[in-house]
Here is the input.
Amino acid sequence: MEKQIVIETENLTKAYNGQVAVNGLSFQLTEGEVFGFLGPNGAGKTTTLLMLMGLTEPTSGKARVLGLDPSREPIKVKSRIGYLQENMGFYNDMNAVDMLRFVADLNGLPRTQADGRIDEALRIVGLHDEARKKTSAYSRGMRQRLGIAELLIKDPKIAFLDEPTLGLDPDATNRMMDLIERLVQEKKMTVLLSSHMLHLVQRICNRIGIMIRGRMVATGAPDQLAQDKLGIGTESYTLEEIYMKYFQEA
Here is the structure.
């Protein structure tokens, strides 16, 4: 059975004061896919995410997220997606349960439904025993996991994860990656993962897209890109080698 397309862009372009941040971007994501979004700082990754979430309008081109136009129906899009920012902000005088109830209220969830989702989310991210501790006492890894729990309250079909392991120690990083894999398997969630940690992207992503100076210069499975650019077939390679080859030739 063919998988449903959940994100699609066609010649998506964004310019700020005459400077093109995203240039003619066209790609698709299907349900249940983990897509690694790679590129140097300033490549246009964050601008692309903002357009897909309806937080900024494109200069030209089209985008569809779950069949919706983010620039015309931003509220509907936001209700169906989750977003984990690079630096999550929480109210430090709240504990995890209070914080998640606040998020549930913002999203109009009835209290009975919200309480069930909060309990499930805290168990999934491994914070159930720390739920009454104020977020000011949370480590960075715990705050990132609370960010995932906040995302889960909405029960999204798509998750945008922006540098989810930045600043985490190796153990916390592995726990975060295990958690993302679990969400994809159990929740059938589509994940767009933006990260500079290429070895982690290689571990978890079905496909990757490499974006340089506003253009998507390559998309495909790591094996496919290795064959196309390095000609190594099934031999050993790293995603860093593939990325640097595209980067040097861009």
The first strand starts at residue 5 and ends at 16.
